[in-house]
Amino acid sequence: MIRAKPSDDTRRAGSQKPAPGPAPEPAGPSWLEPVLLAVTASSLIAGGVLRLLDHSDAADLCWALGTAFAVVPATGWVVAALRRGHAGVDLVAVLALGGTLAVGEYLAGALIGLMLATGRTLEAAAQRRASHDLRALLAHTPRTARRRTGTEVRPVPVSEVAVGDLLVVGAGEVVPVDGQVTGPAAVLDESVLTGESAPVERKPGQTVRSGAVNAGGAFDLRATATEQDSTYAGIVRLARQAGAEAAPVVRLADRYAAWFLPLSVAVAGLAWLLSGSAVRAVAVLVVATPCPLLLAAPVAIVSGLSRTSRLGVVVRDGGALERLGRARTLLLDKTGTLTGGRPRVVDVTAAPGWKPAEVLRLAATVDQYSPHVLAHAIVDAARERGLEPSMATDVSEEVGRGAYGVVGGRRTAVGRLEPAAVVPEWARAAENRAVLDGAAVAWLTVESVPVGAVMLRDPLRHDAPRALRRLRTAGIERIVMLTGDRPEPAREIAAVLGLDGVRAELTPADKVAAVRAERGRAVTVMVGDGVNDAPALAAADVGVAMGAHGSTASSEAADIVLTTDRVDRLADATSIAVRSRRIAVQSALGGMLLSLVAMGAAAVGLLPPAVGALLQEGIDVAVILNALRALRVDQGARPALEPAAEALIHRFAAEHEDLQDVLQAVRDAAARLSDPGGDGQALESVREVNRLLTERLLPHESAEEHQLYPALEPVLGGPEATATMSRAHAEIERLAGRVAAHVSLADAQGALGPEQLEDLRACLYGLHTVLRLHFTQEEENYFSLAP
């Protein structure tokens, strides 16, 4: 996932993205900081003991030796910085150490040496702690795979695995390459990829990404990618570049040092000139020695990188995180970003005498042999609703027309209608509905007669509305959709999400032009998932790829990759970026302000060198510890769910899927009431709806009211947060009761009375509308809280 180095033309155009490069070399061996800390601490303690024993000369010698020992590595750090073109505040430390030796303030020198060693050691420890998750990611890389050849299973290096190889993944093993499950279902721990700890089940034929851990029994995997092209290898390539040294906020700290250094020297010189005391000058230099102070910025940024990696968000480097924290404009592709990227069945219409469930089952029976994306959606929808496809024979497929087969001795087809086919009245109504809803239609015909229509569309992600609200809270001021899709569905989604703008029917070049135009006004983030999004991701200040199901090209062009298929992870990452940057700047500026106050006190003689060194030690440690706050979880970013509440959310989300046929039955019954010749069928449809409402829907709504909502109240802030949804439950129950009353009247009369039709039709259409809105609100506001 390493993006190609930008061309010279791109850089001349003013791109703010640094070209990826090798990580900066460490300033010294890893043992230097702890050894320096041990020596300076020992010399300070030994000198203190000797001073208590009234051996002043020996105490001064110990402190002087500790000071001299600290001067050597500090000088090395200064020389290394000067070679890179930076005159950092370590230079102030060297001047202060030399000054204390020159004026005989050996205790102050020893304290500065200890301060320097403490700051360096603390910063190194913070770097190690903050980058723990990234190192764990690298250590997790699979090295070998077990390849099955006939009846033989032999270990081979992962680099030798080819597309099409059959692999065996044992219990507890890491999936070596991307592939498809064959044989028994696989139970996987995908926490390394997604940040979610709950095991997931992948059925035969479903895709498994490399890096997941087999949490169940052994299963067979058919490789669909080589090691280098697999998901985990790309994440590892990206993670190797993670670091904070190149972040703009760190360069900001270097700029602070550029004026802080001459200011410190000037104040020290002025204090010496006005007072005639070199000790005052040394005292000023002592309190102006915030060696770990400006290291607080990279500590905060790297801490932010660690936080994002735990959420399944891989950030290329600290610069990308810092730019994300300053972003004010967000551009999003539609398909695969705001929508799921895969069509889903949203409605099934059946001809008179047919039931929607039977239409969907027959369509899945024929389509189960098709590789088409719409066919997969139909088969998945049937299985989700417990409608297992049966066997079909003589199956064939015509590109652009559909699939054909023989089911139960009858010629059955799924796809487009024949040009010469007679379109009945119910089918014309279905066509109109599809146009209004922006849905695609797969027609089911039996012996060339249309008997049903399956409507499909790419639905809005349930987590998208909450994610965009949180992004605005995090500081995003302008959100625009860029899509190659038609204007109508794009505008519909933009209206639902409250976007600031939408541009449709764009080519990849158009998207790049739009990104560049927005960049001229503010720091801009572009989110996409397809190959066509890669140029726009590269053109943005921050490119974000939906990497869970997106293309490799988009991931390679991106600065940030969301390895879990949830757009709300971008909101999490943005909140972390804003907080990390705020803490970094707060640490740098706050610490320097305290140092400036201490310098003023030292210049007028209020702080002798030894006391000033102790004070500066406290300032520096406090600032570093403040920077480490970026490692903590921001509880305000995402509500913390109790396990019981999370389990309830998953339960009711699954029930929503199961109840889709109830919603369809309500709408179909309302439509049948408009058929003047179908009174008997209409009444039977209403009776069936009444049964479904009584046996399935109302118990579901009651359980939500008495189980789910009370469990969510502590997270959402009390019962008022669910009050409007409870009112919807009451309205659903009222309309269902009205339908039941109509059924009772019709049963007493033996038929539906003409005076009932208008009110009953209104009840059914109203119930369908309320249910759709209520389901959508629950999914967006409540179900999206759960991982």
UniProtKB/TrEMBL annotation:
Gene3D superfamilies per record: Calcium-transporting ATPase, cytoplasmic domain N, Calcium-transporting ATPase, cytoplasmic transduction domain A, HAD superfamily/HAD-like, nmb1532 protein domain like
> Coiled coil: which residue ranges?
none
List localization entries. Cell membrane
Q: State whether keyword Nucleotide-binding applies.
A: yes
Signal sequence interval, chain numbering: none
Quote the biased-composition stretches of kind Basic and acidic residues, using this chain's numbering: 1-12
Q: Where is this region: Disordered?
A: 1-28
Q: Which UniProt keywords apply?
A: ATP-binding, Cell membrane, Membrane, Metal-binding, Nucleotide-binding, Transmembrane, Transmembrane helix
Q: Name one Pfam family in it.
A: E1-E2_ATPase
Broad class of the protein's primary localization: membrane
> Membrane topology type, per the record?
Multi-pass membrane protein
Task: Enumerate the spans annotated as P-type ATPase A domain.
Answer: 140-239
The protein's matches in InterPro entries, at most eight in alphabetical order, are given as:
ATPase_P-typ_cyto_dom_N, ATPase_P-typ_P_site, ATPase_P-typ_TM_dom_sf, ATPase_P-typ_transduc_dom_A_sf, ATPase_P-type_domA, Cation_Transport_ATPase_IB, HAD-like_sf, HAD_sf
Kindly list the residue ranges recorded as spanning the membrane.
35-53, 60-80, 92-119, 256-275, 281-302, 588-607
Q: What is this protein called?
A: ATPase P
